[in-house]
Amino acid sequence: MELTVRGSGVSATTGGRDLDQRLPLLVFIHGAALDKTTWQLQTRYFAHHGFSVLAVDLPGHGSSDGPVLGAVEDYADWVAELVDAAGFGEAHLVGHSMGALIALEAAARHPHRVSTLTMCGGAAAIRVHPGLLAASEQGEHLAYELLSSWGHGKPFHLGGHQTPGLWMMGGTIRLWERAPAGVLASDLHACNDYTGGPEAAGRVRCPALLIRGSVDIMTPSRAAAPLRERLAGLREVTIDGAGHIMMVEQPDRVIDAIAGFLPG
C-alpha cells in the first residue's frame, strides 16, 4: 500500500490483508539499505493472527520516495508520523539493526505512540568498521560482500534457506545492490554516529524485547549491555545458530519470539 508522510510517498506491505483500525498496529522497520521485503514471512503471519501490519520502506529506500533522512533521531520522528498517517494512535514497533535503533529512539521520544518495543539484532550503539564505511562511501561491491558475510551466521553461508534452490547470502547482497546510490553509506553513518542509545533506553516506558542471534558478530551480546541495565523488565530471546539477519535465517523462531512477547 501507499501512504504519505511529510508530503512524500511511502511504500509498505500489509502482509496480504488490509489495515483494520479495530486491530492493534504492528510496524516493522528494516535495517541499513535493506527494505520491507526482509520481513515478508513475519508480516504475513501477524497479518493473519490478530494484527494490522505495516512493513515499511524507510524514506529513500526501496520504493519509498526520498530524501534519505540520515540520522536515527530523524527516522524515529518519522516513524511516529507514519503511525499517524496510517490512522492509528499507537503501534507495536519491531526493528532490525538500524531499524532497532530507530525503534528504540522512537519509543523514547514518542512514548504515547509506542505500545511495545522489539529489537532484532539490537544494541545501544552500532559501531561500523572503518573499512566498511570507506567501501560504502566509494560504492564498492566489497561493502555488500562484507555485510552479507558478517551479517549471516556461518551455517547459512552455503545453504540453509527455507526455500530450496535459493541462496541466502546472494539474495541479501542483491537487496543492497538495488538500493539507490549513497543510501548504504548514509545508513552506516547514521548507525555509527548514533550515541543516544543508553539515554534513550532509560526513557523507554513500554515493554521491550531483545531478539539476538547466538553467532551475531555485528551486534554481539556485549553491545546490548546498556539495554539490559536501563530497559526496565527487558525480555531477551537468543536464537541458537542465528547471525545478525535472523529474521531471514530463522523466520519461524523470530515469529515465535515476537508472538510470545506481544499481548494476546
Map the helices and strands.
Elements: E1 2-5, E2 8-13, E3 25-29, H1 40-47, E4 52-56, H2 72-85, E5 91-96, H3 98-109, E6 114-120, H4 130-137, H5 141-151, H6 168-177, H7 183-193, H8 197-203, E7 208-213, H9 225-230, E8 235-239, H10 246-249, H11 251-261
Parallel strand pairs: 3-4, 3-5, 5-6, 6-7, 7-8
Antiparallel strand pairs: 1-2, 2-4
Keywords:
single chain; 264 residues; alpha/beta; eight-stranded mixed sheet; 11 helices; 8 strands; 39% helix; 17% strand
Number of helices: 11
Order of helices and strands: EEEHEHEHEHHHHHEHEHH
Category from helices, strands and their pairing: alpha/beta
> Strands across the major sheet, in which order?
1-2-4-3-5-6-7-8
CA radius of gyration:
17 Å
Looking at the structure, what is the overall shape?
globular
Mean pLDDT: 95
> Helicity, in percent?
25-40%
Structure, explained:
The chain is α/β, with parallel strands linked by helices and 264 residues long. The mean pLDDT is 95. Helix content is 39%, strand content 17%. The longest helix is centred in the first third of the chain and has 14 residues, at 72-85. 51% of the residues are buried. An eight-stranded mixed β-sheet has the order 1-2-4-3-5-6-7-8, sandwiched between helices. β5, α3 and β6 form a beta-alpha-beta unit. The two termini are 26 Å apart. It has eleven helices and eight strands.
TL;DR?
The protein is α/β, with parallel strands linked by helices.
